[in-house]
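Practice problem 4.
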């Protein structure tokens, strides 16, 4: 059952809407033969449906469109009909049937596969919209859903036709949200990468068809243009010239009406919204050139520019087709994680048999069998078997990583060598892949500052171009009326800001794809430009510059018992503990361990147990001294600086001391050296002791160290650096660094960050080595250089070409070629980021 505010109120609202529509219908006349104002379908004879829109009774084809249009008006979204550039799908479903169809999405088992729960009060889902034809369609859906009771936020991405919706489950139902979209004449579905690829493929086919039409008819027009140009040099009969011009007119019509329709439609929409975009001067140039050519063809006076029209359309479509290809590659890279999850899983039953089930039916604590060559169906922990797992799709690491009992595996990663038995821990929206996909999606919705600035520059530039073109037209009408049209067309074409508009997005798309291939995820669109400006790098210690796991470094024997025997005794005591020291000792032990009984633990000190009838103690020096009756320091070597110790003893005296340390990451020293070599300031902020932090700092080459800091004190240190004008990049593991990661200018969460996503971070390293921080910095800075190069070229080209065109030195056809080559150069320059091998 729907809640009152989305069911009963919806029914009451629908009744009121239909009542108001009925008034409009009774006031309208029989509109047979006209088109439905909402969907464009021809109205049948006898239909008398209408809705008052914009102060007029607009005809509708059926009661369904009447109800939808009335809902749009009642929601205060009447301006949609001014903004749209294409008709939506018709909405003829009967409301009760629609409610029954969509109610299935309210079922918890269905939502488990795509809805993310944030506690008990928030739900989040990604929806894919169908029937979207323009940005106005996305705007309408975004505004409509944002106005629904219980909906907290709606974020739309027109490029991918996706919506992120967050709502209160106690105040709204997902079925009500989907129904609101249907009432507008569109369809919404839980996001499915396959469905999105089908939509992108449809867009690609449409673009290819338009490009083909422009190419086929354009070639014919160009051949006729060659004859006309030759006639200017060698002479041509007037009747033959007129014949060629008329044929060129007929051949240009399909190009202008069909192939150029996206430009004309977009320009009309922008003008209706009282704004200008790059399609406005493009469409102005096309229409002006075509109208002038038609006039010359009809009157027999003047030049024709059909060749410029078809060439302009063809080259523009070609550039946009390449842009679409880049967008498809970006979408593929963004959604690749969602596509690698398997559909089926082999679940173990209580009897030990295996059954083949859909992966969506898996629950935490289920046991599954993953054969060699199969893909892990869900996040889990290996309980039996040893193999290698290929995590390259997630981390960028090409070498499969060994995994055994007790190790975690990630859903969607292939098992390479041997069968594994896995206990499921996380499924659906709670999985690692879902976390990473959300980070990628969030970055796509966050528009970088440089991209926003480029859009503002392009908008002002377009307005300036239109003003210059108008001034040039007026001047040449006064100076040389025969050339005003040619010069004006050349100015409009040569100044098309395509290159300016492509300068930033092409570079950012290439950079994000490069980083994604290296296992580096940007979670915010602004991260790349901020990282490029950062000159102060602050590192956490444990888990960032170190592995975050204690390892056995050395064993100092204090009795006749061998080091190997001592280690087996200690591991036997620690095998059921989760303490970092316990994990290190158990991992270092080899072979079968002796049995232990009567284990007693004293938190903070140590533990004891009986092994072969002997009471064995393991813990701190003070704990061992109390139970062995002897100072364990006697006869032992002093522990190295920054190394932890664990003592093993019996009641007869100490047996040995274990030295354990958290080892630095292998690439930490090279990373710090590289950052300092480029003139960056590098600091270490640690909550560890001064001795341990200082020892690590000396090892990796960091000179500025602050130790013994709490997370709040780390944030204070970073804020002080920012107050002095520093752009601070914080690198941490995300476990206890959330405040300082959020407070830094830009933040990086290294591999192993909790819970992998490190929500406070701007950049996440998915399994990549620490040196990937250097790769991210180098890519960010190179991307900024490429963007500056693109801007310099685009602005320089226009500053040079526009005056030449205004002076009459550039013919329209040359302007078309120059504009297209300028855009292609920008795209090619950005593509170099993919092939770049890096600075290190």
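Answer key:
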């Amino acid at each position: 059952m729907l809640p009152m505010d989305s069911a009963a109120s919806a029914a009451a609202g629908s009744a009121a809407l239909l009542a108001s529509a009925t008034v409009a219908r009774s006031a309208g006349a029989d509109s047979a033969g006209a088109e439905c104002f909402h969907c464009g379908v021809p109205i049948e004879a006898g239909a008398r449906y209408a809705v008052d829109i914009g102060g007029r009774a607009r005809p509708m084809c059926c009661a369904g469109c009447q109800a939808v249009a009335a809902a749009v008006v009642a929601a205060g979204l009447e301006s949609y009909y001014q903004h749209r550039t294409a008709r939506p799908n018709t909405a003829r479903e009967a409301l009760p049937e629609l409610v029954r169809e969509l109610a299935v999405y309210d079922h918890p088992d269905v939502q488990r596969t795509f809805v993310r729960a944030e506690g008990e009060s928030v739900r989040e889902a990604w929806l894919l919209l169908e029937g979207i034809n323009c940005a106005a369609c996305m705007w309408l859906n975004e505004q409509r859903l944002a106005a629904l009771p219980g909906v907290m936020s709606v974020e739309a991405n027109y490029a991918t036709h996706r919506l992120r919706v967050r709502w209160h489950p106690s105040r709204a139902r997902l079925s009500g949200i989907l129904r609101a979209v249907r009432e507008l004449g569109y369809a919404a579905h839980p996001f499915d990468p396959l469905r999105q690829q089908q939509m992108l493929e449809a867009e690609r086919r449409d673009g290819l068809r338009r490009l083909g039409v422009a190419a086929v008819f354009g070639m014919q027009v160009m051949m006729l243009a060659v004859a006309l140009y030759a006639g200017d040099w060698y002479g041509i009969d007037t009747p033959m010239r007129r014949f060629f011009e008329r044929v060129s007119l007929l051949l240009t019509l399909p190009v202008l009406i069909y192939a150029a329709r996206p430009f004309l439609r977009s320009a009309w929409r922008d003008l209706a919204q009282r704004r200008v975009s790059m399609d406005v001067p493009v469409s102005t140039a096309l229409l002006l050139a075509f109208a002038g050519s038609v006039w010359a063809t009809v009157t027999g006076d003047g030049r024709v520019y059909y060749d410029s029209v078809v060439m302009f359309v063809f080259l523009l479509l070609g550039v946009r087709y390449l842009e679409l290809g880049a967008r498809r590659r970006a979408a593929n890279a963004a959604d690749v994680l969602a596509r690698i999850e398997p559909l089926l899983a082999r679940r173990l039953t209580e009897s030990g048999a295996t059954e083949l089930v859909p992966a969506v039916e898996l629950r935490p604590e289920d046991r599954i069998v993953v054969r060699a060559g199969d893909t892990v169906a869900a996040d889990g922990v290996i309980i039996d078997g040893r193999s290698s797992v290929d995590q390259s799709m997630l981390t960028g690491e090409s070498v499969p990583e060994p995994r055994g009992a007790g190790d975690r595996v990630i859903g969607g990663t292939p098992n390479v060598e041997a069968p594994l038995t896995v206990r499921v821990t996380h499924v659906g929206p709670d999985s690692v892949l879902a976390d990473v996909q959300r980070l990628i999606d969030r970055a796509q919705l966050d528009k970088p500052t440089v991209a926003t600035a480029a859009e503002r520059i392009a908008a002002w530039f377009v307005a300036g171009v239109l003003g210059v073109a108008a001034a040039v037209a007026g001047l040449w009408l006064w100076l040389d009326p025969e050339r005003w049209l040619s010069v004006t067309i050349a100015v409009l074409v040569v100044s098309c800001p395509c290159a300016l508009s492509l300068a930033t997005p092409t570079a950012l798309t290439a950079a994000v794809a490069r980083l994604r291939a290296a296992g580096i995820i940007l979670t915010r669109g602004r991260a790349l430009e901020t990282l490029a400006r950062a000159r102060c790098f602050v590192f956490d210690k444990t888990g960032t510059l170190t592995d975050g796991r204690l390892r056995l470094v050395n064993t100092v024997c204090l009795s006749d018992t061998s080091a190997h025997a001592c280690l087996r005794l200690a591991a036997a005591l620690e095998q059921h503990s989760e303490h970092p020291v316990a994990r290190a000792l158990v991992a270092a032990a080899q072979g079968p361990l002796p049995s232990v009984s009567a284990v007693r633990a004293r938190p903070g000190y140590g533990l004891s147990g009986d092994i072969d009838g002997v009471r064995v103690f393991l813990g701190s020096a003070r704990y061992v001294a109390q139970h062995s009756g002897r100072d364990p320091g006697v006869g032992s070597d002093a522990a190295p600086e920054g190394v932890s110790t664990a003592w093993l003893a019996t009641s007869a005296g100490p047996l040995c001391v274990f030295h354990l340390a958290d080892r630095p990451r292998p690439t930490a020293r090279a990373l710090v050296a590289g950052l300092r070599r480029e003139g960056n300031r590098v600091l270490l902020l640690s909550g560890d002791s001064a001795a341990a932090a200082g020892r690590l700092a000396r090892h990796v080459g960091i000179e500025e160290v602050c130790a013994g800091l709490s997370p709040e004190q780390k944030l204070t240190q970073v804020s002080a650096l920012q107050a002095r004008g520093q752009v601070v990049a914080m690198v941490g593991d995300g476990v206890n660094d959330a405040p300082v990661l959020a407070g830094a200018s830009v933040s990086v969460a290294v591999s192993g960050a909790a819970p992998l996503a490190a929500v406070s971070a701007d950049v996440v390293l998915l399994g990549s080595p620490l040196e990937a921080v250097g790769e991210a910095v180098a890519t960010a800075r190179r991307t900024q250089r490429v963007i500056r190069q693109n801007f310099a070229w685009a602005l320089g080209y226009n500053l040079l070409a526009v005056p030449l065109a205004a002076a009459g030195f550039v013919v329209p056809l040359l302007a078309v070629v120059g504009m297209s080559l300028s855009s292609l150069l920008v795209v090619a320059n950005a593509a170099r980021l993919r092939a770049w091998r890096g600075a290190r």
